[in-house]
Design a protein that fits this description.
Structural class: alpha+beta
Number of strands: 3
Order of helices and strands: EHEE
Helix content: 10-25%
Radius of gyration: 12 Å
Largest sheet: 3 strands, antiparallel
Length: 59
């Protein structure tokens, strides 16, 4: 799981960091990737305060 705080267009960096962690720790992706909005445009009008949780199932 990876948390990302910031604008939508900077999300890719957090996703890439999670993938690097998976590779570096010799884990195997065995499921889907999910992104959950924890703080989005519904809660804040300031994009750099958005918070997302990225989860990928591994074994």
């Amino acid at each position: 799981m990876q948390l990302h705080k910031g604008e939508y267009h900077t999300f890719r960096q957090a996703y890439d960091n999670l993938l690097k962690y998976i590779v570096d720790n010799h884990l195997k992706i065995c499921g889907n990737a999910y992104v959950y909005d924890l703080v989005s445009y519904l809660a804040s009008s300031i994009e750099n305060q958005y918070v997302f949780k990225i989860a990928i199932q591994v074994e």
